Queue: 4 jobs
Job 1
Amino acid sequence: MMRNVKMLYDTQQKTLFETRNPEQEYLELINKEYNFQDAIEILDKIDWDFQDFRTQYLTHTFHSYPARFIPQIPLSFIKLFTKENETVLDPMCGCGTTLVEAFLNNRNSIGNDFNPLATLITKVKTTLINEDEFRYFNKKLAVMKRYLDLDYRRVDERINNLPNRKVSKIFNRVVISKLESIRETLLDVKEEGHNDLFDLGGVALSSTIWSLVENGNGIDVDDMFLKKVKSMQNDLNKMAKIIKTIPGVRVICGDARKLDVKNDSIDLIVTSPPYVNALDYYRAHMYNMLWLGMDFDLFRKHEIGGHSHFIINRFRLLSEYLGDVLRSMIEMNRVLRKDKLCIIVVGNSSLEYELIESHKFFAEMGKKIGFKPIKTIFRNIDKTRKYTSADIGKIDDEYILVMQKVDDTNISAEDDNFVSDVVREQMLGFREQIKKCQGTSIRSRKPTNERLLKNVDKISEAIETISKDTKIKR
Ligand SMILES: C[S@@+](CC[C@H](N)C(=O)[O-])C[C@H]1O[C@@H](n2cnc3c(N)ncnc32)[C@H](O)[C@@H]1O
């Protein structure tokens, strides 16, 4: 394992191997120094499919997260377009893939996400904890295990003490009792002033709950949790050995449409917004958040790309989504230094049998706010790790949009008129496209032509309500 870790991060790696493999060749390529133009050309030399590359190493293994990107995407841009001590931002950082790569490569980083679970995971993945702290924690957990309370008479009391009683419906009484013992131990740890361990334990507990929700009840939750903590400890220790100096990390739980970041302070943005109509993150994480006592109402209200509304006309979701992403892009332009790169990773979606090529909308909107699209890289997603959604089917490819900030935008992300004008233009172009050809995204049963033709009317209706649909919900 240590050897693998070295393989990734030792720049002197050439000497360690007799034969070169694609992973080594890739690392050699991105580890060289280039000027800006040459670095742009190097992008064409990378095989972005990264087939068979290791994507789960060190703290990337801490917690699964829907639609995260592979570490090689941020790593490539961080290496090619920033220097040590410069600052990388991911305004919708999810589980912190960009920040972990920045951390490992001595770049300062800022991560922002509205999902409190996302920011907790990101913080824990980029916080080293020393051996003494772990010794204290292991003792505490050993005591918990020894006296693990399986007194079911207390379960009802515990269920009543849970942040939300709904939780009890998906777990049996043994599991609830054990999870509560873990939670109480963590609260003790916090009380005793060990905040980083409390956060680490929260991520381990959340990861255990995630496995339970995915795989059904498993009464060995205490062992699952303890194993998780052990493997997290090992990964953090390995990370500590690799890192020469600890770069700055700032994690913000906030809205990407109103970033708490200074103007012109960022050297690179690598991010991936939610897909339109793909997945409600708050739903995916509801049980974890409930158990950790997190309030997800605010996130549910302001989540970009959520799809549990506009049921009658799904194209209204598209205008709302484009408005939200445009506001986030205006903020990205504001905080990015001039001439620096903004990388947005996104896949295609589907709405009412029509293909939504989000990256094309983003590139067009970017041009209105001081970004110059430089190139769009297409990549296949590893077939074995396809991310599936009930609404859009399998997502098997994604696009990496590379834009350069060429101008400061004078527009504010709160300018409702500007946002609705830009979205209207995009939606009018989309309607023209659909007038010429409908059913662009049919993956399964083809609906009737009559049904498909209705899409043009639906888009027209959605255009009528753009001003309302693109307003930020207060
Ligand atoms: C595709 S995921 C990002 C995954 C990330 N690249 C990773 O590797 O983990 C999109 C993220 O956008 C976040 N998000 C949704 N609405 C947001 C908002 N209004 N402000 C900030 N983040 C938001 C979601 O919580 C989710 O974590």
Job 2
Amino acid sequence: MTRAFNQRISDALMERERSNLLRSVQTLESGNQSVFHKDGQSFLNFSSNDYLGLASSSELKHSYQQAIGELGVGSGASPLVTGYSAQHESLKSALTEWLGFDTALFFSSGYAANQALLLTLLTKGDLLLQDRLNHASLMEAGSLCGADMKRFRHNDLAHLESLARAERSTLAVTESVFSMDGDLSDIEAFVGICQTRGMLSMVDDAHGIGVIGDNGLGACGISELKPEILVVTFGKAFGLNGAAILCSEEMGQYLTQFARHYIYSTAFSAAHARALLQALSMIQTQHWRREKWMELSAMFEELLSDCPEYVSTSTPIKPWVVGDSARALALCSSLKEKGVWTTAIRPPTVPRESARLRITLSASHQHQDVLMLANQLTRFSEEG
Ligand SMILES: Cc1ncc(COP(=O)(O)O)c(C=O)c1O
């Protein structure tokens, strides 16, 4: 029996290695900032989702430190036991008022929030329609939840509509900003179709919240129509970690009663909730952070748009598509030698032959950082 497991494990690892798809954990010796240290070398970091530069902001660090001094470091329990505090409640009020939902439930990660929603809501006989590029957390929960899952072509809402079935309880799910491509979905059209076809709508706003829309309102800031369920995560523009599901009062009550990821998991701490509230206030008021990455984005475009690997996006996510996995790895290594850190994203995370560098810009980058990156990318592109 053990031999069978050993064989399976070694076969899978060998196959990953053979196809240049082996992944490895990277240990940083400093925090995840725009410049970090690793193995005694410093690197410009173009591989972080800290789009607004909040993760290392002195203002947010100070607020978190103060909250820890006052409230301690751990919540000690799940929300329904003794893990939910007045700080969570304040965060809930601020978030629901800002985004226009009745209620919010907090989770330790976006992965858990997405899993909780799909696994709690859907059952055998239901129909689940998902954009084919939705995140792994949504796809995995979709295949485990018992519903009949169909994937519509990326951002093809006519295809979504053609899959709708009036007689079946249906949930349709899209991301607002697609994590590996940096492109946007048309939230208003998506929600509109869901409403006319009697489908429940859900938007994963992990990469949109804090970044797109007026005042960083995310998906809710670019659409007149709101989805019934919105998932926001705190590990990207918020600079921290955790997530929330925003929904109606009744849906919130249902999830509170039945969502196992909510009921049986330790809540993030009160100090963390206080820091998230501070991050929210910075997102709402510090417009210069969004203006900064937009300025860097315009510079990136001006310097690189003639290269065939360049993909134009209106978000801080800048895919640099090279196609072949080995070539993506080679580019990554060559950038590292020059002190520039990017991550090669390879299948199965992205479709075959579309290996890429997932480059991300942040308000914490400087103009000379983008210039340095662009010079290296241009050199590699010209060398073919
Ligand atoms: C679209 C999307 N949803 C959900 C998640 C999961 O969020 P978390 O990192 O908080 O688990 C991610 C993570 O990268 C994501 O890109």
Job 3
Amino acid sequence: MMTDSSLYAARVPIFPRRVSGRFRTLKWAIMIVTLGIYYVTPWIRWDRGPALPDQAVLVDLANRRFYFFWIEIWSHEFYFVAGLLIMAGLGLFLFTSALGRVWCGYACPQTVWTDLFLVVERWIEGDRNARLRLHEAPWSARKLRLRASKWAAWLLISVATGGAWVFYFTDAPTLLRDLLTVSAHPAAYTTIAILTATTFVFGGFMREQVCIYMCPWPRIQGAMMEEDTLTVAYRDWRGEPRGKGLRRRQAEEAQAAITRAAGPQIGGRAPAIPMPGLSGARSGAARQDGPGDCIDCNACVNVCPMGIDIRDGQQLACITCALCIDACDEVMAKIGKPRGLIGYLALSDAPREAAGGRPRGAWAHVFRPRNVLYFSLWAAIGMALVFALFIRPEIEMTVAPVRNPTFVTLSDGTIRNTYDIRLRNKHGEPRAFRLSLTSGSVLAIALEGTEDLVTEIPANAQKLQRVYVSARPGGPAAARAETALRFWAEDLASGDRAHKDSVFNGRED
Ligand code: SF4
Ligand code: SF4
């Protein structure tokens, strides 16, 4: 049956009010640190010698290398990157299981850049009330000027964001000069353009829509959170019934003052989508008979960047940024009530708290078997990576026997095998390696392209050296199907040696 109702709902803009408090301060600090790391890192120099790049952090796609300060990862060592990615995943699992969506609320790029864009928006257009009025106002010269200024500032931030990203992939000062002289590779301009557009749109216009509708992470996190997870919650047994009863007058006065400061609540409130696995809404604990501490001032809603009401219970849209905690604590201080009507709380503690008991300490929630398991896996992989980093051989050599054919018989009856030996020189200067072999049988070694047994490898490069091993006619190695042998490579400068085992194939009579 056809109905007139539409499944589409246009976005209602959200104008979060400025708030101050301990969590806001923490968010400022994290924002400054994360943005500082992102923008500054490509400009840190690190001397690696004349043949190697002097950028501390560099993803050198052309040469398939990754430089991170003193660590250099070659493409064949990709397991380090894989290990770091697994660690990052486990770290997210650990934090989500212990503290809910702290990643989303404090450090996710979408949150950090949206926060930055909001700072600009407030700076140009004013706080919530002023922005609401501007939004409602018809287009005028003033509105056009404010909007144009805001969009221009957002665009500058977006270009800087896209620009900073490409600096990670090539020498930053050189690329900056090329970009300014319009002589950089087209890929650089394309990347900057794409990242500029996504930053501008995601941070300026889509904001909470990215978190609610585009990002799959909230759904995944819902499966990782449980009732022992500490997360932002409203103590409904303390807050309800709202603003009623004996303190109505006091509540109404406080509410009027705060509402005047906060401005009216217009429709920018997201629907309350319950967080899967966490029973959806409120604690369900018993409410008190008298009036609750919540004066229904909407301060917690007005500061929320997601436009939700935490009093509806835990919701998929809540990124646990804790700004509603700061807002409500401010209100509680004004009406002379204890802080913490909204606070970090585990739902498993709600009945105990509602009955007048003390909640378990934060550590009891953090040190749970699941979190210990996540941390143990995370630490084990981290230690394995550090160990692997320190035992990396100075000389890296691989040996690949050429098996088509396995051997050739020369005119004098000599049996010859061919091998491809790959040597890597990870140093900033050319190196010479002498190749040799040891075996239980008499075998001779020769190098293609050189009379002696020394092969030169340019700085920071690898070389494939073809090697021939021969057994004299009638000797034991020539007559045996397989003879074990060991190739040696000696660095003539340092005297360091490396070896790889292989086999020599003879004619089995
Ligand atoms: S800020 Fe606190 S008092 Fe005000 S509506 Fe929210 S929960 Fe109630
Ligand atoms: S309800 Fe809003 S302000 Fe409160 S933690 Fe969730 S996203 Fe942040």
Job 4
Amino acid sequence: MHLRPGLSVLWRGPGESQVGVDPRCAVVLDGLTPGDQRVVEHLTRGPTPADLQRVGRAVGVEPERVRELVARLKAAGVLDTRPTRSSWSLAVPDTEESYWSRLRDDGDGAAVLAVRASKRVAVVGLDRVGSFLATFLAMGGVGTLLLDDVSAVTEADLGVFQARDVGGRRATRAVTHLRAAFPRLRTSAPAGTRPDLVVTVSTAVADPLRLRHLRRAAIAHLPVVVGEVAVVVGPLVVPGRGPCTRCLDLHRVDADPAWPALAAQLLTSAPTGTPATLAQLGAALAAHQVLAALDDRTVTVTGATLEVTALDPVPLVRQWAPHPACGCDAPSAPATDPAAATTTPDQAAATTAATTDPAAVGPTSADGEEDGDGEPARADALAPAGSGGRA
Ligand SMILES: [Zn+2]
């Protein structure tokens, strides 16, 4: 038997010991004899029940009292009584497993890792943000990562990429680094494989064609847009539920009728590069939300976006309502944005658009096309919009 991984036994004073520190997983035991405290401390060594009884005898604690102490710790949820812990056998995912073992009611961090190992996530766009994001997902134990980006590594991408990668193909180089660090990571899948989730990382504006293909293929997707100042994560689009990315586009058109023209020009804009801390913050937020979705935990970017800049590490949360003109089958309901008062006028305009529920049908989105136009869904939603590459 052993304590949940990562928990320490701390001596608080005579008769009082504490297991763990964080109130979310710690417990204080009082009324202990010095011998009791020695028995509890021995649990950090992962003893068998017989070992623990031997320690008890050596310090004058009766067998029944040893069993009572074990029962108290078990009831407090700090004891892991499973006979063996499975492991990915890699240091980083094992760290992940330990963390969730401390937090979950059942202490079964291995179950979290088992689910993640069975998942396929595609990351399309491997600039500095995208390459950090892919790395975080591998560290988190995602079993299959399908990386897609045919463009060349530039000096602005360095971080996961190294100087010798400059000029090489982003996806190829990223796969090389990830497989070296995570030998059990799968980076390919049979043709026609549907990913469980696709993350698109793009500069200035999300590629509407790619997003439309994902919507039509009914594949869950999470857009990440690297802007001039901010990285915007979300919303997570789950088939049949809104708002979708087209809803956000329509809200933006409501706030600025020139948006389709601007967006079309931004599609071909050159990447400006992302400062190191912003790239990591944006990538970590996106990876956090992907893992939350895979784990079936609460996903903040369901119907919302997270927006972070290098100025402030605390992201701005914007809630978005489904747009009545979208037709993504989402119930149309007003949303609230308590953070709107802190936004810029332009942002406030977009937020205001999101919080209203106009009766009038809005103009078309930047992609200029309804979803239900009868065009068949692409079989391969990973390689639309002229991008033929997949590692
Ligand atoms: Zn929609």
